[in-house]
Amino acid sequence: MKRYLDSYIYVVLLLLLGTLSTQLIAATDAASSVSVDKPYVRAVPPGQPNSAAFMTLHNSSTSKHSIVRAENVVSKVVELHTHVKEDGMMKMRQVKQIDIPARGKTILKPGGLHVMFLGLKSELKSGEEVTIILIFEDGSKKTIQAPVRKMKMHMNKPMH
């Protein structure tokens, strides 16, 4: 009976060790798994109270990750936003999170997902940099530096 009990305990310990090692390997936080490519912040004219940040997010892990919040020191409020077509008009709407698929990417761009800066504390000038902190679903954080860029306006040419 003792031999059977010793074998049983040995098998249980092996199973526990296997489970723990698997969890440790998968325990990489979201901030370590997600890289940021080509971040930038839109420069705005003097007196304009809002701006936005854009970037491409790459997820190297086998799990989906999400940005649930962002922070900066240049605006009073930071929100995660998207654009939706409503009643024939494009409108901005706040979203709860921005998902980055497992082994995939998510593009934040004008007219789509973006990080919105509301209530700018000062003018954002082209050539400056803004520190943005991205906060993920697991509480991990990634700090990035995003240059401020002047955006080119595209004017529609009249049809003849």
Choose one word for the global shape.
Answer: globular
Please bin the fraction of helical residues.
10-25%
From the alpha-carbon coordinates, what is the Rg to the nearest angstrom? 23 Å
Quote the beta fraction: over 45%
Number of domains: 1
Mean pLDDT: 85
Tell me the CATH architecture. Sandwich
Pattern of helices and strands: HHEEEEEEEEEE
CATH class: Mainly Beta
The CATH superfamily name is PCu(A)C copper chaperone
The low-confidence runs, each spanning 5 or more residues with pLDDT under 50, are: 20-26
Structural class: alpha+beta
| Strand elements, count | 10
Number of contiguous helices = 2
CATH topology title: Immunoglobulin-like
Largest sheet: 10 strands, mixed
Distance between the termini: 95 Å
List the defining traits of the structure above.
globular; 2 helices; alpha+beta; Immunoglobulin-like; 160 residues
Tell me briefly what this model is.
The chain is an alpha+beta fold.
Verbal overview:
By secondary structure, the chain is an alpha+beta fold. It has one domain (30-149): Immunoglobulin-like. Helices cover 18% and strands 47% of the residues. It has two helices and ten strands, in the order ααββββββββββ. The protein has helices at residues 2-25, 30-33; strands at residues 34-42, 50-59, 65-71, 75-86, 89-94, 98-100, 105-108, 114-120, 129-136, 141-149. Strands 1, 2, 3, 4, 5, 6, 7, 8, 9 and 10 form a ten-stranded mixed sheet that branches. The longest helix has 24 residues, at 2-25. It is globular and about 70 Å long. It starts with a helix and ends in an 11-residue tail after the last strand. Mean pLDDT is 85; it is low at 20-26.
